[in-house]
Write a structure and sequence with these properties.
The chain has 377 residues and is of the alpha+beta class. The longest helix is centred in the C-terminal third of the chain and has 22 residues. GO terms for molecular function: acyltransferase activity.
């Protein structure tokens, strides 16, 4: 088995940072009324700027595959030519279409010659699953290199026109229709962007990161869906897919919008997160004090203190000074967040040989968690 190293990292954040006060200008006002939930959500998540693939005139500038293509091309240098990529593995929770796959569309934009592609589906963990596929391919000797990506382009899913037909329909049914909070909530949480890693079987580059191990856990056998799109959640918890509704119901119910069961999220995301963290580090004999940098992908700073408290409760406390996050200035970029965090940490000049970096990524879709341990070489 080969050793696997992250030898180059890149990110692509579209256009300029968008402040909280500009969000409704970009995404649009629903039913002519400013969102009542916006200030509450933003106060809790403490995100101050994020990025949208929308220009100042309201035009869409990039789709998801194009964002990913931009990040991948930033990996090119004298040591990596476009046609030398042996495997392209791309994760996202917001693909541009149902078919073809996301990685196929990225490959189409790259036009870099024949290569193997892989498109793990899912939410935030899809970026880590893309990384694990590349990690295992290089480790097994199947390939000598792999480019792995995480990306999101959710802004277009959150624009006001996505919900207009639903509000018109509700207007015929009740006097004071409002967009359900489980749909409005995510409009103020999500951001666009892409990140990419180059994996190789040799420690090339200035400060390569060796991938020691990767682990994943799912709690779908215990818990209902929490974040979903392309379906409606029934009272029983069952997800009824868009394909079982008549087409005129798709827009009336905003079936393709992302939705979040906030109550289910709050009850489970941290407890199961720390439970899975304990399993991962115990399996590999890692102690919390061995971790130099802890990079948790969290959707909101609302969860930060509560995550720490749950760690203390379950006896896996990682000290605050070891935490590294950038949520407040780049926003929640879903599957891309962990890539963008690692890129920022690597570019900070803080890393030194021997440092241990623990990556921690949850997804609330049906509660799954992914972990990786990196060592600075």
């Amino acid at each position: 088995m080969k050793e696997v190293y992250i030898t180059k990292i890149s990110k692509f954040l579209p256009n300029r940072p968008i402040s909280n006060d500009e969000m409704e200008d970009k995404l649009g006002i629903i039913d002519g009324k400013s969102s009542k939930g916006r200030r509450i959500v933003l106060r809790n998540n403490k995100i101050t700027t994020r990025y949208y693939a929308i220009d100042d005139n309201g035009n869409i500038t990039h789709n998801n595959a194009q964002l990913t293509k931009e990040a991948v091309e930033k990996l090119y240098d004298d040591n990596l030519k476009p046609n030398e990529i042996e495997l392209l593995s791309c994760g996202t929770s917001s693909p541009d279409q149902i078919l073809p796959s996301h990685a196929a569309m990225v490959h189409g934009f790259l036009k870099n010659g024949n290569t193997e592609i892989n498109s793990p589906s899912g939410a935030c963990c899809s970026g880590m699953n893309a990384l694990k596929y590349g990690f295992l391919a290089v480790k097994s000797g199947q390939t000598e290199n792999a480019v792995c990506t995480g990306s999101e382009r959710t802004s277009s899913w959150m624009k006001s026109d996505t919900f207009e037909d639903e509000l018109k329909h509700l207007n015929t049914l009740e006097d004071n229709p409002i967009l359900a909070f489980n749909k409005d909530f995510l409009r103020w949480m999500l951001s666009d962007g892409a990140g990419a890693f180059l994996l190789e079987n040799k420690p090339n580059g200035e400060l390569p990161l060796k991938i020691e191990w990767m682990e994943g856990y799912s709690y779908a056998h215990e818990l209902d869906a929490c974040m979903y799109a392309g379906a409606d959640k029934l009272e029983s918890g069952f997800l009824k897919p868009w394909s079982e509704y008549p087409s005129d119901e798709w827009s009336k119910k905003s079936l393709f919008a992302m939705k979040q069961d906030v109550k289910l999220l709050g009850e489970n995301i941290l407890v199961k997160g720390v439970d899975s963290l304990k399993m991962a580090i115990q399996k590999h004999g890692l102690k919390p004090e061995d971790i130099t940098y802890y990079l948790p992908h969290i959707s909101s700073y609302y969860f930060k203190d509560k995550l720490y408290e749950e760690m203390v409760k379950q006896d896996v406390e990682i000290p605050w000074e070891n935490w590294f996050m950038n949520l407040s200035n780049v926003g929640n970029v879903g599957a891309a967040s962990i890539y963008i965090m690692v890129e920022e940490l690597a570019a900070s000049g803080k890393l030194k040989k021997g440092d241990k970096i623990l990556l921690s990524v949850p997804e609330s879709a049906r509660f799954a968690y992914a972990y990786a341990l990196l060592t600075v070489c």
